[in-house]
Amino acid sequence: MAKHIQPVWKRVKVNLPGGFVSIGDLRTLLEAIESVGIHAVKIGNRQQLLFAATAEQLDELTYDLLNQELLHEVVNDYYPNIVSSYVSDGIFNQSRWLREGIYKDILASFEFVPKLKVNIVDANQSLVPYYTGNLNFVSSDIGNFWHVFVRWPKANQLFEWSSLVYSMDIAEVCRQLEKLILQGDGLPKTGVRVRGASLETKVKEAVSFHSQEPGRPLVESEFRLPYYEGFNRYEDKFWLGIYRPDETYTVSFLLDVCDACQTSRIGQLYTTPWRSLIIKDIRQEDRMVWDYILDKHRVNLRHASNELNWQLEDWCEPALKLKRSIVRYFDRLNIRTYRLCFGIKIGTNSGIWGSIILKDTTGGSKEPCFDVLHTEDFNANARILIPYKQGVPQQSLPHVLKQLCDNYYDSTIEGGLSSTRPAAHLSEAPEGVPTHPRFQCTHCLSIYDAAYGDALAAVPPGLAFTDLPTDYTCGLCGAPKKDFKLWNYISH
User: Fold this and answer.
1) Which residues neighbour 74 within 8 Å (Cβ) at sequence distance 6 or greater?
2) To 10 degrees, the CA torsion angle through 431, 437, 438, 440?
3) Which terminus of the chain has a smaller tally of CB atoms within 10 A, N or C?
4) Where are the alpha helices (DSSP H) in 340-414?
5) pTM
6) pLDDT by residue (tens digit) across 266-317?
7) Domains in the chain, ordered, with CATH?
């Protein structure tokens, strides 16, 4: 009997700059991949389109993909998609000056493809994250001017420019910053402020552009993840949000979506960092067409909010399975998660964000274990992570998360949580483990705890920080031992 050989699948990423795509371009791409036998695609957490293909299918697709103006990469991710909050325009916020035309003008001004992650977001929305890029532009209260926040690759700290940048200078500022950072100004070694100020000075010396003194410090929108699914009325039309629990959209469904858009003169489709799709400008008289498509493809709407507020790494089936099990627990106990969002960090992807983060620390253990962390005051856009529980077995996570959610709602009455006023239970050491100092990496802010070691750096539990070899480097970001500082949260 002939042995069946399993095909080798390669992951393909298609960038959709700004998180939108014209219906014509989308149809052309979908028809091409369907013609070679690919039947499903995914949405990435940077608003990209993802699909898997065999080598034979890719050979057949080469011509079509090269003719597409949309950048695609096979296996690699050298060119992260430019993220924007354009999807929010008009449905989740009404900005005073930031409109569709400005987003499109900024994106069109990029004459190069960035290798660093770029985020272009409106401060008056909470659907798209502010700071998950390396180069983050957040709208100011002065028309056409933006706050600039630099986050070095594999680091967790931000540097804010002293001046605002004009919309049409964003692309050139990105080009100059990327050149400097990739040519040596990588992880800040002399401190974030010193290195950041030096970067800003060098860019301003290299190119002439419009700048503006900030009218006032950035006022972030309070994080309240809008309900981004289902039919929703705005002005005299509707917008439709579509979310799939398995993160997968069939090509046949999306082709029917393209048909409906073209019939009703809808020009483009939007993706979100929550792996959902949004279609705007649906007329009342076309509602029946959309209902028919949803019925035909058995697409459910109106999922529970505690299922919609999760950030996972792309192509990460273990994280998806873990999310499903926790969501079932939340549903069964009717746990409130409003104003919270959750991220699962299995790999070292620094783009995963949320107010509560589950970080895989399994290492060589037989049973999956996670550290549970939260941001200051559970602000999803904050970058400082505060440990809550460490080394939690996977089966215990739902119960621990329920406790942390309860702590959050209790804290809203008592004035919030911060690194100096952490959540309840934070000072409880694991049973049998003595209290002792912890050490924090000044770059990615991860904690070295002798009770757990550093599985990512192959350091076993029980080794004190002072006994680590001098060439030890942070398992998460690679920073040297000298860049750790004492951080004993038990004393707080």
Assistant:
1) 10, 11, 12, 58
2) 160
3) N
4) 397-414
5) 0.83
6) 999 999 999 999 999 999 999 999 999 999 999 999 899 999 999 999 999 9
7) 93-212 (3.30.413), 316-491 (no CATH)
